Amino acid sequence: MGNVTLSSKRIDWREWFVYIVLVALIIGFSLMSKAFLTTQNFEGIGRQIAMVTIVALGATFVITAGHIDLSVGSLVGLVGLVAAICMRSGLGIFLSSLVGLAIGAGFGVAHGLLVTKAKIPAFLVTLGTMGIARGLALTITNTKAVIILNDKFTTVWGAGALGRIPVSVVWMAALFAVAIWLYHFTTFGNYVKAIGGNPTAARYSGIKVDKNTMMVFIYAGLMAAVAGLIMAARLKSGRPEVGSGMEMDAIAAVILGGASLFGGSGKMVNTFIGALIMGIIVNGLILMGVQSNIQEIVKGAIIIAAVSLGKRNQ
Amino acid sequence: MEMMSERQTLLTVEHLTKRYPGVVALDDVHFELRAGEVHALIGENGAGKSTLIKALMGIIPVDGGAFFLNGEPASIRSPQEAMGYGITAVFQELSQILDLTVAENVFLSKEGKKAAYWLDRHVLNSRTQEILDRYNISELRPMDMLRSMSAAKRQLAEIVKAVAIEPKILILDEPTSSLTDTEAEKLFDIIRVLKADGVGIIYISHRMMELEQIADRVTVLRDGVYVGTREMAETTMDEIVEMMVGRSLELYQSRQKRPIDRSEGCKLLEVSGLRRKGTFDGISFDVYKGEILGIAGLVGSGRSELANMIFGIDPADGGEIRMEGKPVRIRSVQDALDHGIAMIPESRHQQGLVLIHSIADNITLPILKRFQHNLLLSHRKKSEFAGGMIEKYAVKTESPAKIVNQLSGGNQQKVVVAKWLATAPKLLIIDEPTAGIDVNAKVEIHKMILQLTELGLGVIMISSEMTELLNHSDRVMIMNRFRNLGIYEDVDQETIMSEIMQDENAAAENGLTA
After folding, report:
1. What is the pLDDT of residue B94?
2. pLDDT band, very low/low/confident/very high, at A76 (cuts 50, 70, 90)
3. Strand locations in B115-159, DSSP E?
4. Which end of chain B has fewer CB atoms surrounding its CB within 10 Å, N or C?
């Protein structure tokens, strides 16, 4: 009890850690490349991180609830492809997007049911659906891409801009605001934290653990679907192979942001900072002319270093 | 007694000091343990018992002082070194691997490192059986899986594991907190064998009654300071309690029987013929307003299961529950809460609290909807409300934002109490309300409950501690094998035990062993 003063100081420092890393990276890359600290470059970074950030919003909820969702990267590919096929068959922007979102939500329902009712660990469930979603996407068009010719679709979801701000960044900002509200300012967000912190105590407190867990997976599926639509719009096509590995980037962003991998706690803002850090690393390395293979190595090393430095020593 | 004091001194702890930033956990503490004695180490939560034990086990470094083993200075800086001196401990919170057998668990530490892969399962089992026989433990078999065993049996298995390494010094940290009185007797038998072998036992417990039964000497710590050591035969409970808290307490005085209005109109809960597949085959009882109904029974008699059934954790599938005369359907915890039923569950850590969350988050969890207006959850209102509850229920903390993990056991339990009383229940079920918390906190919690019954709250109290049960219940229901054996207004421990034994005998005769 007496070490309160010290430990609270330590926690304060750790809470700011992710910002320290961010500032350090910005200063570092600014010194190394003149092109880094420009509005144009940051527009690029914004476009680049929009999709991962949106997926990471869902991942924050899933991880906070004490689970994991590995399927979201595959869902991004599947949803984008199906939306493209719908557009090609003349379904219109609204319905095509709705079909895409429904696929995301549908996978979420399946995950929720398998985790809560069949009591299969989320890791295994989503490892399975990760393969299923990717396999479906590759099978539907026999691995071929589907071009989207409709300019409205690509403008609304990804290629357009609001003034100088890319539309994908606008989507990211709007969904981020909703996520902050859900996570921090609703009973739902609090219930999810309680479930992740101690599912038994949550149940004994009258919280409908299964129902809330289900909503978390649906939300994660929806976020992946939105990312899939944005991806398709930016590529002006549905491509079955896109989004691969995105689940890992999203998880990394959440953990970089300081959320506990065991559930129960996290901060939505920090998840965004986590995604931003990863975007900046990739962007800075590109500007420095580092090869993409090497980028992956550096990114991995920085993630491990940041997480281990920011870890609470308990 | 003569024999006892002639026994050689095994361990001496001199001037032991341990500082944490801002607090002195141990301040110049003295302790001495003889071979073949049970030396009780007692004090309130936060008195320094755990710190002393951790220092002795080499788990934490100390800031000053010395250990002597058999008169020789000893350096204990790691658990391995402690093991090397023959010191071992059984902790209160067990961290067992549940998918092991008793035998595998026993040899996990001892043979595990050098010979796990080579040891024949039969050898493991027969060696374990030898140990079980030596201590006359018929309740365990070497092949039993820990997962399939009750908490009490797991505790026993852990003690077997500790004695298997033939320790010179054995530390038992609240070994009886999950045991009933009969099971505790079993433990005491084991302890007597160990004593005869010359093992020195450091025994931590909050249960005063059992110290009289088992301890030879007692050392009291208060706020990290050594208060004194007494021969058990030459001291009284009152003296020990006074040493612990610095004043005498009313806990060990029997409470006057209160008049309870048991007219039909004052009936709060009426349970009739409640059934659940695999456990209850029609159980009936009632609770009146302002009454504390105690439930006595052995571990496994169905007390906690009954509580869980009424609270909607494992809802009944037949029979009837009435609240204030009206039939109610309880299919979930939310249903129970809606009908004014709250429960302080058996396990504070597993069922009661989200340990990594703040006091405010925990207290407001069941009533969180109250703080959401116009789609916005107000953290300020939550915190204000929690602040009020903290004051009302005397939780010692500087802020509602404090993480529950950092509170003492007694304070954590007060948070659980506050959390459930915040729902303004008509009926409160309390399952082991004061297990593992210190005397002062116990008294405070008993007082709170008593005050609330004055206002008409009905209480169902489950407790394995007979003193608590008999002193605080207005009526006692005896349970065995998921049945109600009878409800008594005046009952003593002997009657309860003989009722249960008779029921067990009857079951055995009918070939219905539980």
Report:
1. 66
2. very high
3. none
4. N
Secondary structure element (H or E) that encloses residue B443, with its range: helix B439-454
Q: Which of A2, A191, A265 sits opposite B23 (nearest CB)?
A: A2
Q: In 3D, which of A66, A105, A58 has the Cα closest to residue A275?
A: A58
Residue partners of A85: CB distance under 8 A and separation at least 6: A140, A141, A146, A238
pLDDT digits (tens, 9 = 90+) for B182-230: 888 888 999 999 999 999 999 998 777 788 889 999 999 987 889 999 9
Nearest CA of chain A to the CA of B333: how many Å? Answer: 5
Asked if B332's CB is within 8 angstroms of A206's CB, the reply is yes
Euclidean distance between CA atoms B7 and B13, whole angstroms: 17
In chain A, residues with a C-beta closer than 8 Å to the C-beta of B356 are: 197-198, 260, 264-265
Q: How confident is the model at residue A70 (pLDDT cuts 50, 70, 90)?
A: very high
Q: Which of A203, A205, A211 should we substitute to test contact with B (largest number of B Cβ atoms within 10 Å)?
A: A205
pLDDT, residue B254, reads: 52
C-alpha B434/C-alpha B235 separation (Å) is: 25
Which strands form B341-344's sheet, in the order they lie side by side?
B341-344, B427-431, B458-462, B292-296, B475-480, B483-488
* Separation in Å, CA B161 to CA B100, B107, B111: 12, 7, 11
Q: Which two tokens stand for residue B38?
A: 């049970």
Residues of A in contact with B18 (CB under 8 A): none
Side-by-side strand order, sheet with B267-275: B281-288, B267-275, B318-323, B326-328
Q: If one looks up domain A37-312 in CATH, what number appears?
A: 1.10.3470
Q: Give chain A's largest Cα–Cα span.
A: 68
Contacts of B25 in chain A (CB under 8 A): 2
Q: Which residue of B has its CA nearest to A1?
A: B406
**CA pair distance A224, A51, nearest whole angstrom:** 8
DSSP state of B449: H
B408 touches chain A (CB under 8 A): yes
Residue among B21, B333, B377 whose CB faces A3 most closely: B21
The Cα of A263 is separated from the nearest Cα of chain B by a number of Å equal to 10
Q: What is the ipTM of this complex?
A: 0.87
Sign of CA dihedral B379, B383, B385, B386: positive
Q: Residue-wise over A99-128: b if at least 16 C-beta within 10 A, else e?
A: bbbebbbebbebbbbbbbeeeeebeebbeb
CA count, 13 A, side-chain hemisphere, B197: 16
Specify the pTM. Answer: 0.76
Spatial separation of the C-alpha atoms in residues A310 and A308, rounded to whole Å: 5
Asked whether the beta carbons of residue B361 and residue A190 sit closer than 8 angstroms, the reply is yes
Share of chain B above pLDDT 70, in %: 92
Residue B368: which of A217, A192, A196, A116 has the closest Cα? A192
Distance from CA of A197 to the nearest CA of B (A): 6
Task: Report, in angstroms and rounded to the nearest whole number, the Rg of chain A calculated over CA atoms.
Answer: 20
B514 close to A (CB below 8 A): no
- Quote the minimal CA–CA distance from A195 to chain B in Å: 9
Taking an 8 Å cut-off on Cβ atoms, the answer to whether B313 and A202 are in contact is no
Q: Which amino acid is at B247?
A: R
pLDDT range class, residue B491, cuts 50, 70, 90: confident
Return the domain boundaries, chain A: 37-312
- Per-residue confidence band for A3, with pLDDT thresholds at 50, 70 and 90: very low
Q: Nearest 5 degrees, angle CA B24-CA B353-CA B390?
A: 65
pLDDT per residue over A24-59, tens digit each? Answer: 999 999 999 889 999 999 999 999 999 999 999 999
Is B424 part of the contact surface with chain A (CB cutoff 8 Å)? no
Q: What's the average model confidence in pLDDT over B253-269?
A: 80
Q: Minimal Cα distance from B380: which residue of A?
A: A185
Cα separation, A252 vs A272, in Å, equals 11
